[in-house]
Amino acid sequence: MSATAAPAALQTGHIGLNVTDLDRSLDFYRKVFGFEVQGEGREPGRAFAFLGREGRLMVTLWQQSEGEYAPGLSGLHHLSFQVETVEEVRSAEEVLRSLGAEFKYDGVVPHGEGAASGGIFFTDPDGIRLEIYAPTGADSAAAPVASAPTCGFF
After folding, report:
1. List of domains in the chain
2. CA-based, 20 to 30 A from 43: which of 37, 49, 57, 115?
């Protein structure tokens, strides 16, 4: 007899991110993703914001960090958002470039050699690794790393 009971329907809820400057992160996430603030708190030592779209909570920001994201430590590898078209990916890329975001690769790249899906790979103001991708339309570019998934940020 197994002690594991798998839920019939399981999906990701929201993602919580620790940030160093709530106002700076709010500005970034609202401009890049079009998030609306669904709730926030500004009590000293307890600053947070709930972000979403169309009434759905997607990301929570918690001003609890003192330094940048450290990819060498256990925890979040990257956060990925899917859009419908590669044109939407390119529009987000323009916004990110206007904000001075750092990109891992130049432009839209496929998830792997010959893959139709792909997108852009970048960091937020705290160095958290992010991805915006479309399921098709990226196959006109070469994969930046032939031997590993592009979203590995290798």
Report:
1. 12-65 (3.10.180.10), 77-148 (3.10.180.10)
2. 57
